[in-house]
Amino acid sequence: MKVWARLIVKHRKAVLVIAIILLIPSVLGMLGTRVNYDILSYLPEDLDSMIGQQILDQDFKTASTAMVTLENMPTAETLKLKEALEGIEGVAQVIWTSDLVDVSVPKEMLPEDIQKFFYNEDGATMLLVKFTDSSASASTMNALAQMKETVQEHCFIGGMSAIMADTKQLVNSEMPLYILCAVGFSLLILFLSMKSTLVPLLFIVGIFFPIVYNFGTNIFLGQISYITQALATVLQLGVTMDFSIFLLHRYEEEKQSCPNEEAMVRAICSTFTSITASSLTTIAGFLAMCTMSLTLGRDIGIVMAKGVFLGVVCTITILPALLMTFDKALRFTHRTFIPRLSRVSHFVVKHPIPILAVFLIIFIPFAAAQAKTPVYYTLFDSLPQDMDSIVGTNRLKEDFNMTTTHFVLVDDDLTNSQIQRLSGELEKVGGITQVLSYEKFLGGGIPEEMVPQDVQNIFHAGGKRMLLANSSYKSGSDEQNAQLNEMNRIVKSFDPQGKISGEGAMTKDLIEVADVDFRNVNIASIAAVFLIICVVFRSASIPVLLVASIESAIMINMGIPYFSGTTLPFIASIVIGTIQLGATVDYAILMTTRFREELNHGCSTKEAVQRSIENCSQSILTSGLTFFAATIGVAAVSRMELIQSLCLLISRGALISMVVILIVLPALLILCAPVIKHTTFHWIQKKERVQS
To answer: What is the pLDDT of residues 356-402, one digit of tens each?
Structure first.
């Protein structure tokens, strides 16, 4: 490692040149990486709802649709708008009653179900728009953007595709704000904690490189989710900042005993050794999300694990080159405001038992509450309700009672009479307002040969028949989940291979998958971090203490929403534990490592704890407050409740973990010192001077 460190220090300008050159392919890779705005597409592909979605997409070309509500628009203008929409690139078909009968025929002559589908009692009508590609595709997004420019006043575009397009626009507009807030607030904390005026800027520049490299290498994944895109920069900045802090502190310490270049060589070697365990636990925590059946976890986990690894590499290469290049400018200093917590260290050493007793009293109610924190799965609820697509979707609910539409797929071998009986039974299910099928056209007295082929293709394709069932229940609600269970029972009785798809069915599957994922991710992340700490410290007791400390902080964090009456998005409840564990266990490792060093220098247990708190407090406070600052700013400016909730939980979790590691963990180390000594291989390498 020393040879590598000397090369970096000696050829620092060459290192910076290479780092800058590598930004070019990274930026190209970043621009070439597709962003997926459809969270439901991350469900396991073997679920009935996902298989049904594939059939709708490939055979019926119906998986990607939008509905346009027109209020009190004359027939001539409706036809003109329909023609204009059909001319937009990416639009496959626009369906209205003119595709069924001549527009001169009064709508009252249409079958009752067709009337209900296309018209309401207040003079509103609806156009069904089918797109050539999937909802999250670029062509569909572009088509929806053109549709917005084409429609007139009192026209509302709704449906899943429209919501995804607006989500993309919102994320893209807010991303610069996220980065600005994360960088701005982080710089504030760094300026308050660092003596050198220039160091905070060098830290941000140093972290800029691995962030760009991380986004650039995402091209090998093919795509990332919009949640990953929105959070990766903020999380990577917050999680890897402590590596930079460790390097600087070690460099300043080494400069007191040797020349600057040799000090940096020693700092690189020491930092690499000290952050290896920290980075491994963080990487393991993020990779634990790959155990999720919902592949969104794998998306976030791989991107963030890769980001931490690149952060480590850049911390021991690019950052030392930056610090050495601008070494003379580092002399400009100012007063710092982050304390060493000397009084706190003495208080903890004097009162370890009362501290643990008070903490236990606080912990118990929050631990019980975190299991009861309410969670929602309806993704639309996390978006601003004044978005055009949300307004348009709400108009569909108000004007046509189309809160949710289920797509029922059965075998084409079923007879017309069987389909009619199936439709009848589905209509009897509570909350189903309407069932529409090809057979309803024929049942209305229209001869089969008079039904246009385009209409037949809507309901017949790929050896399947499709029925549309409109529900008055909201996706993700207990009522709709029970409704889907009953519908599924009926469909299977007619066709054992029949499937129900659509937003409601996929959301129901999402709930069931998320419940399993929550357990799997927690177990995997705890086991991985526990094993790494066990190997690093060669101890059976230290992993228990460290993981228990962070897990207690996580439980307190997750219990707060219950007492505040806050409902969390489902993804927050799954990933927050892993993120908080992986990101803040570094503080516990730093504290415990310093405690061991002080013991090996001959200190008593209490003296070692007191010195550990004093010497580690500034690093932990700086790192924790920077992590807090980077995420709280995003929580403050984001209009997306999903991003807002995640960042609020992460920022609050950083503070709680910081307090637990600075106060509770030291108290545990004092009381458990004899246990640690007898359960750790070579814990003390020199005989203690004073017995605790």
So the answer is: 999 999 999 999 998 888 888 876 777 888 888 888 888 887 777 77
605 vs 673: CA distance, rounded Å: 7
End-to-end CA distance of the chain: 37
Task: Output phi, psi for 632, to 5 deg.
Answer: -70, -30
Would you state the pLDDT for residue 688? 43
Residues 6+ apart with CB under 8 A from 657: 550, 553, 554, 580, 584, 587, 624
DSSP codes joined into one string, 139-157: HHHHHHHHHHHHS-TTEEE
In one-letter notation, the amino acid at residue 497 is Q
* Rounded distance between C-alpha atoms, residue 590 and residue 586, angstroms: 6
Sign of torsion, CA 322 324 329 332?
A: positive
DSSP 663: I
Decide if pLDDT at 689 tops 50.
no
Stated pTM of the model: 0.84
* pLDDT, position 24: 96
3-state secondary structure at position 334: coil
DSSP letters, 37-87, are --GGGGS-TTSHHHHHHHHIIIIIS-SSEEEEEEES--HHHHHHHHHHHHT
**Is the per-residue pLDDT at 444 higher than 60?**
no
pLDDT in tens, 598-612: 999 889 999 999 999
| Letter string b/e over residues 420-443, b meaning 16 or more CB atoms within 10 A of that residue's CB | bebbebbeebebbebbbbbbbbbb
Q: Which of 677, 679, 682 is nearest to 691 (CA)?
A: 677
DSSP at 661: I
The per-residue pLDDT for 470 is 86
Structure tokens at 578: 């892993």
Distance CA 650, CA 42 (A): 23
Single-letter residue type at 369:
A
* DSSP single-letter state for residue 103: T
* 451 has pLDDT over 70: no
What's the CA gap between 512 and 275, in Å, rounded?
38
Question: How many angstroms separate the Cα of 203 from the Cα of each of 235, 416, 667?
Answer: 15, 70, 33
- With vertex at residue 364, the alpha carbon angle to CA 358 and CA 368, rounded to the nearest 5 degrees, is 160
For residues 268 and 243, give the distance between their C-alpha atoms in angstroms, rounded to a whole number: 11
Quick one: DSSP state of residue 461?
E
Q: Phi and psi for 41 in degrees, rounded to 5?
A: -70, -10
CB atoms closer than 10 angstroms to residue 445: 8
- Residue from 630, 543, 609 nearest 182 by CA: 630
DSSP-derived 3-state class of residue 36: strand
The answer to whether 602 and 688 have CB atoms below 8 angstroms apart is yes
Lowest mean pLDDT segment, chosen from 147-161, 411-425, 442-456:
442-456
